[in-house]
Amino acid sequence: MKRLLSERLRPYWQRIVLIVFLVLLQAIASLYLPTLNADIINEGVVKGDTGYILRTGALMLAITLLFVLAAVVSVYNGSKVAMSLGRDVRAILFRKVETFSLAEVNRFGTPSLITRTTNDVQHVQMVVLLSLNVILLAPMTMVGGIIMSLRLNVSLSSVVFVAIPVLLVFLALMVRTALPLFTSMQAKIDRVNQVTREVLSGIRVIRAFDRTRHEEARFREANRDLTETTLRVNRLFALMFPMVTIVMNLSTVAIMWFGGKQIAEGAMPIGDLTAFLTYIIQILFAVIMATILFVMVPRAAASAERIQEVLDTEPTIVDPPDPVRDVPLVGSVEFRDVEFRYPHAEEPVLTGIDFSVEPGETVAIIGSTGCGKSTLISLIPRFYDVTGGAVLVDGVDVRRFALKDLWRRIGLVPQKSFLFSGTVADNLRHGDKSASDEELWRLLETAQARDFVEEMREGLEAEIAQGGANVSGGQRQRLAIARALAKRAPINIFDDSFSALDFTTDARLRAALAREMAGTTQIIVAQRVGTIMHADKIIVLEDGTIAAMGTHDELLATSDTYREIVASQLGEETAA
Predict the structure, then answer these.
(1) What CATH architecture is 333-575?
(2) How far apart, in whole angstroms, are the C-alpha atoms of residue 296 and residue 73?
């Protein structure tokens, strides 16, 4: 946590210096007031000097007002620093996660990244807020109170030197026990977040398969696990405040007992005893404030470690030190003896992938589920990097491009058509933020989406729910295709993007795409033979390797695997 705070609080050092000065001012004022109160009792009350009482009382009132003013300003600035820290760390985390490849995202998991960006940052922010507003005052008050109590009466001060070590040893043992529990608690919050997210995202599947009770049990188990760990922590810290209270009360009783004896013997003025009691209460109250910090710091430390872990993770896919520039937008793609395996996997997913796509050519990829089709096309925009061989775009290895330069050459319609919350127009303008309404309607017409968008009451301004939950699967796919078209990229990748369309809409869409995207390169992943049979080249994948490659007619004549696929979909006569 020290490293995180030292790096992120540096821009606010001027405010922090001001806060330290104001807190020091508060500490001096709080330590000086009991002395003035003792003087009023010793000099004013005992001697009956009303003028002295009024003068000293007025001075105490002025010091109190100064204390209040300093407290208000320091609390304002402390809150400003803490909230700014939280804002900055969240922004830095978000930007860092945006640079991650799919490998890093999969390593941490989406629920954990969300928890680290929200819950963990909040814990660190809260500790900074308490430290600047409350806890910073504790050591100043404690040290000043000890000095002032020693100045008043050395023998009575021995009570302090017994009470404080007892408390500090007790608190140190509690923190040492609590730290691993807090680390475990954050991991269990991740688990609850993960289960909740899965249930909400998969609510239709859960209901369709009548798995509601199973998911309730799964959530109940994760929730119970978190609750038990939280209760262990709370039971541990439930001992803290009673212990502090016992020590404080015993110290007060001891001071009253021994101080009363000294007053009776004439060795100590009664005003000094009241001041001494005030100092002891201030010292022990400072210990209580430190106790609050001891409760918060272990959890914040665990959260800071989780935040720092994300910040220290270097993405595996980054811009090269010296990226190639000014490469013409041609639209060619080439795979040269490509091999790819996922991190920590024993076997490669793809091996010996070797083919090329010429500019303006339409290439289709077909194969059984799990044969590596989506993985293969993920290598083109560098969602993953190859573990062997090379992928070239426009004649250049994709690892030599700056990522933005590579991505502007590629339009992608992913297998899961994701739409953002906002309007239809907002989603389409992800492809081209300057596109006019007329252009958007034309793109919707090409994507066979104009009819249902016109039926929406607001048209282009119709609201789309998060993930496109308020439109059907086929409508999501067509809107995603229109968004990709808006980009006007020379290479367009369609990852099983026609699966939710009926045959008639599919045929109309492919005909419209042929007109709209004439001269651009198209790479189509599909399960339906009818979608790809007119492609210039069809690649048949089987177990991560290219089983056959050619046109539809060539593959019918030469590839048993392709004939089986055609026969299963279009019948034996077509395959023959």
Answers:
(1) 3-Layer(aba) Sandwich (3.40)
(2) 24
